[in-house]
C-alpha cells in the first residue's frame, strides 16, 4: 500500500488540470479518481466519467475523505474512490481545488504527489474557459468567487511539498510532467530538487 501514489492536480479554474489528468491517463495509464458534485454537467461531460453528478440530497448520502463548496456547488471525494483506483494501478490521479489538495497532503503524506498548476497571466484563464464553452453566467460566478482568487496562489501549506508547473506552453508542460513522473517512479519525489524546463 505504501508504494501507491496519487497525483493530486490542483490550481485555479482553466489552468489545465483536467487536460493534465487526461495526459497521465493516456500516456501512463493512470486512472483518474472520479469525484462527486452537485454542479450541472457541461456540454460534453458525462455521468460516471467526468463526475458522479448528484442532486443536493444524493450528495449528502455519500461518505467523503474531504468535501468543499466551490462557486456555489458541492464537491467531494471518497476513500472508496481512492482505493478503487489503486486496485487498478499503483499510480492514480485526482483533480481537486487547493483546499482539497491541502487535505490530501495532510491525510496521505508522501503518498500524495501534489502538482500545483499555474499560468503567467490569470486573464488567460477566462479566455480558456470561454473557449471551452462554459455557460457565461457560470463563468462570471466562478471567476468572481473567493475560491478562484484563493486557487491562483500556491497555499502556504503546500509550499515545500508541491511541484509547481507553469502551463502556458503545452509542449513544455508535457516535458515537465514526464520529468516529475520519472522522479516519483524512481522514488525521489523531492520537488525542490527537480529542475523543471522553463
Ligand atoms: N497549455 C495550454 N494552452 C492552451 N490551452 C490549454 C492549455 N492547457 C489546457 N488548455 C485548454 O484550456 C481549457 C481549460 O483546461 P482544463 O479543462 O483542463 O482546465 P481545468 O483546470 O480542469 O479547469 P476547471 O477547474 O474549470 O475544470 C481547455 O479547453 C483546454 O483544452
Ligand atoms: N476539494 C475538491 N475539489 C474538487 C473535487 N472535484 C472537483 N474539484 C475541484 O473543484 C473545482 C471546480 O471544478 P469544475 O469541474 O466545476 O471546474 C476545480 O478546482 C476542481 O479541481 C473534489 O471532490 N474535492
TrEMBL record:
Q: Where is the signal peptide?
A: none
Which ranges carry the Guanylate kinase-like domain?
Answer: 4-182
Which SUPFAM superfamilies does this one have? P-loop containing nucleoside triphosphate hydrolases
Q: Name one GO cellular component term.
A: cytosol
GO MF terms held by the record: GMP kinase activity
**Reactions that this protein is recorded to catalyse:** GMP + ATP = GDP + ADP
Q: Report the superkingdom from the record.
A: Bacteria
Question: Which keywords does the record carry?
Answer: Kinase, Transferase
Gene3D superfamilies on file: P-loop containing nucleotide triphosphate hydrolases (3.40.50.300)
Sorted alphabetically, which InterPro entries does this protein's record hold? Answer: AAA+_ATPase, GK/Ca_channel_bsu, Guanylate_kin-like_dom, P-loop_NTPase
What this protein is reported to do is described as: Essential for recycling GMP and indirectly, cGMP.
**PANTHER family this protein is in?**
GUANYLATE KINASE, GUANYLATE KINASE-RELATED
Q: Which family does it belong to?
A: Belongs to the guanylate kinase family.
Q: What is this protein called?
A: Guanylate kinase-like domain-containing protein
Q: What is the lineage of its organism?
A: Bacteria, Bacillati, Bacillota, Bacilli, Lactobacillales
Amino acid at each position: 500500500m505504501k508504494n501507491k501514489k496519487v497525483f493530486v492536480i490542483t490550481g485555479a479554474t482553466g489552468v489545465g488540470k483536467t487536460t493534465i489528468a487526461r495526459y497521465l491517463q493516456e500516456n501512463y495509464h493512470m486512472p483518474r479518481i472520479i469525484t462527486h458534485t452537485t454542479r450541472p454537467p457541461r456540454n460534453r461531460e458525462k455521468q460516471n466519467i467526468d463526475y458522479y453528478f448528484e442532486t443536493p440530497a444524493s450528495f449528502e448520502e455519500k461518505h467523503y475523505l474531504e468535501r468543499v463548496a466551490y462557486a456555489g456547488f458541492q464537491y467531494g471525494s471518497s476513500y472508496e474512490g481512492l482505493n478503487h483506483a489503486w486496485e487498478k494501478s499503483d499510480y492514480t490521479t485526482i483533480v481537486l481545488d487547493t483546499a482539497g489538495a491541502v487535505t490530501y497532503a495532510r491525510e496521505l503524506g508522501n503518498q500524495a504527489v501534489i502538482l500545483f498548476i499555474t499560468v503567467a497571466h490569470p486573464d488567460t484563464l477566462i479566455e480558456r474557459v470561454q473557449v471551452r464553452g462554459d455557460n457565461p453566467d457560470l463563468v462570471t460566478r466562478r471567476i468572481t468567487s473567493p475560491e478562484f482568487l484563493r486557487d491562483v496562489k500556491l497555499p502556504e501549506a503546500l509550499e515545500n511539498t508541491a511541484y509547481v508547473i507553469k502551463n502556458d506552453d503545452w509542449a513544455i508542460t508535457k516535458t515537465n510532467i514526464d520529468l516529475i513522473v520519472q522522479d516519483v517512479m524512481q522514488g525521489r519525489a523531492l520537488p525542490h530538487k527537480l529542475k523543471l524546463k522553463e
